[in-house]
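Journal club prep — side note

Before the paper discussion, L.F. wants everyone to see what a predicted structure for a comparable chain looks like in token form. Sequence:
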Amino acid sequence: MVSSGSFPRLFTVDEANALLPAVRVLMERIQENIQRLKNKSKIVIRDEQLDPEATDFMDRLQENSEIARLVSEVKDGVEQIQSYGCICKGAEQGLIDFPCLLGVEVVFLCWQQGEPTVSYWHRIEDGFAGRRPVLDVEKTGPDKKTSYH
């Protein structure tokens, strides 16, 4: 089991939802930059006849100043999201986890771009595939006490 000390911050559902307006804007910007990056990369790969299998492919791609800028902006956006104590699990998919204490177990509150609120959670080891609605909790938490986040 992961300890709460492994994370800089633990969130309640309300705290995670209160942070969503800021996180949503950052995630939208990240996703826009990823789309621009894909489009520009296709052009550069074609025009420069770059080989995606080459060992220096990423270095060659980032010789283009616009691509280098977009990569930097995506990294900066992810770092800004993570500076709040959240975990950006998938920038392209818009996935963010918020560490949360459920009974005595640290779990992740889970949000995906497009969802109106933080309404799901999953155990750390289960990942996105193990998402459950926030109120879908076993009758007792890991400490044998009823828990509702």
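L.F.'s comment for the group: Residues 4-133 form one domain. Keep this in mind when we get to the figures.
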